[in-house]
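quick one: zinc ion bound model?
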Amino acid sequence: MLPIPLHKTFTYSVTEAEANFLEKGMRVAVSFGKTKMYTALVVEIHTTAPTLYEAKDIHQILDEKPIVNEQQLKHWQWISNYYMCPLGDVFRAALPSAFLLESETIIYKNEAFTDESILTDTEFLIFEALQHQSQLTIHQVVDILDKKKVMPIINELIKKSAIYIKEEIYEVYKPKLIKYVRMHPNYSNDADLENLLNELSRAKKQRDAVLSFFQLSSSKKPIKAKDLETNANVSASILKALVDKNIFEFYHLKTDRINYKGDTNSLKELNEFQQKALEEIETSFQEKDVVLLHGITSSGKTEVYTKLIQNVLDSGKQVLFLLPEIALTTQIITRLQHYFGNQISVFHSKYSMNERVEVWNNVLENKPKAQIILGARSSVFLPFNNLGLIVVDEEHETSYKQFEPSPRYNARDSAIVLANIHKGKILLGSATPALESYFNATQNKYGLVELNRRFGNVQLPKIELIDIKDKHKKKLMKGHFSDRMLQLITEALEQKEQVILFQNRRGFSPVVECNTCGNSPQCPNCDVSLTYHKYRNELRCHYCHYQRAMPNSCGACGSNTLDTKGFGTEQIELELKELFPDNSIGRMDLDTTRGKFGYQKIIGAFEAHEIDILVGTQMLSKGLDFENVSLVGILNADSMLNFPDFRAHERAYQLMVQVSGRAGRSKKQGNVAIQTFNPHHQILQQVSTTNYAEMYKEQLNDRWQYHYPPYYRLIKITLKHKDFIRVDNGINWLFKSLQNVFGEHVLGPTAPAVARVRNQYIKNLVIKIPPKQSLAKTKEQIAKIKNTFEAVKDFRPIRFILDVDAY
Ligand code: ADP
Ligand code: ZN
Ligand code: ZN
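yep, here:
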């Protein structure tokens, strides 16, 4: 199996000795095509020579034992079939990139080259790109020039000495090493030591270090260089000097990176409602493999999970705890470590390559510290061998679905299959279950357990709808705040309580518009207006990261009447700073949470009450637990409701109920204030009474009527290309071919709200699959049409994206 977008596997030849050594799941280095070298995975060892090509020899065997197991291969195969994506894509997504070394030609700029005038325009493009980036891969060059045959251009650049290239194979995993100190063998007897201390009588610091060393060595454990420095109160250079004098020696031991140092506590005692839920889950598991726990916000679902986890650990099996967002891991990891200490490993994309390799190996070897894996989406790919339980927390979250790149899998649904492969159980938890999940539960496909009390019997927050149309009319708005919202904030702050304000847009304002001519600055690469970010006085595109300085005058008519419309988190933060100068204001959105510890810093500061008011985007809605928040404000509910998507209302409900759930979690009932132009909207009414049942019923009705999930399944086809006409021709051809087979169940073609991104035009089609129609057969037919499409020369350059169960 090769990590390239192909369904097929390939046969390579090995010697008999190699064949005897090799096992399924080991990696081998192979060449493919003319120049490429890849890491491939052995999936079968056989003696049938391929008929269509000659089997090449492998380069070398990379593993001593398998790093991928049977269950994984089965799971990947399912993902590939179900989501209609090449197995090679799943393979690439599954392994930490450090496991997939390949020869990639990397080009560098020649710093000595100055005569830019001898370069052609195309050559200059690449040279220029290298001034912003220290290196480029061939792939990136292909992207920049938007053409495939780039080798001649690169050759020319090399000939002109503008660049140089390096064929590089990167072997990557470096275990973290810890430095230890021991005595040099010269000093093996007491007499030598006596002499040594005398010799050092004038080098006081060095003498201290040696004396400390003896003190520490009485414990008979290896002595870390760092510990010795602290204990002797000397610097690293003192130890280094002693090593240079052949008195000490350094040596290194491998250690795993993720270590928990604190003590562990026993699990909390469940209250009667939690206890009952736990028992119901366990009973339900006797018959069903999947159970949905519908527990209101702050009902203590996490504590129920921990009991289940403990039971599974006791039976000697592994546990996977899935979270939708890395933002959440910082709190949950602390809570779980409290109970399970060093039995937990964390796995997600903000971890370095090395850290991910380490977790992979620990899971593979079923190490004590990999008994519980806490992770985002991609942790469903880990080499579990004995998975007893999967918990999918906040199972309704749409971020469980990967949408770019392929494989476009839903981690929740893939986890259900994974649990099944391991004959384990899976618990889906949420205060606002996805309609699909709740539907499956009511159809008896999943077990259903309800938990309707907040822990400590705190009432759900009081939710108040504020009609800002009326407030505007009566001139009771200050910036984006109604008088009532300000009053509630002031009251909370007076009580020394904290406030969360939700605004689902980042930046300062999403639209800049000229008051004279109505023109608004657009992204040159995408069909979208630029968002104003005040802090940098910049306009930015949220689709392609294009940015430029905010102009002083209108680009169309030249008048200096540019005005900002709409508002984002940044603007709210600034308004708050003026309204509440004595309080500290924090902001949590994509712009403030970059870097591995971005979230942790803000969440930590809020937990420590260093921030009084936290403004943020939907990141704030995801299961965070703060004890002192008494007020949650939603500044503009309408933008969520007026979204052209069949899931918009469901999502708006989930989002608002989840953010509201951050209020009043520990002591007393909290408050929620929702500003809207449309207080009679049925979803807002349902949010204000937390009436999930009614929302469910109403939405389900719509879905039935308009043929959407959970009744119908959806497969979305997207075409992308920089030439509009070509995409248009392609989509029309495709529409007709699909319509021939599926008739009225093909919708489209449509252009998405942002119809051009990064200079690529986008068109969509949706195929609806009625409940009784065979899914497998439908996919077969679609695949056939796709093949024909790709055989048309004119269509071949178009990017063809298939998204099964699209969101
Ligand atoms: P949920 O995940 O359902 O929103 P949490 O599990 O975060 O709720 O629980 C809410 C709060 O109540 C947390 O601070 C948690 O520590 C506390 N809590 C829940 N159950 C218990 C219990 N049985 N004993 C003590 N504290 C609990
Ligand atoms: Zn203008
Ligand atoms: Zn853009």
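The chain has 26 helices and 34 strands.
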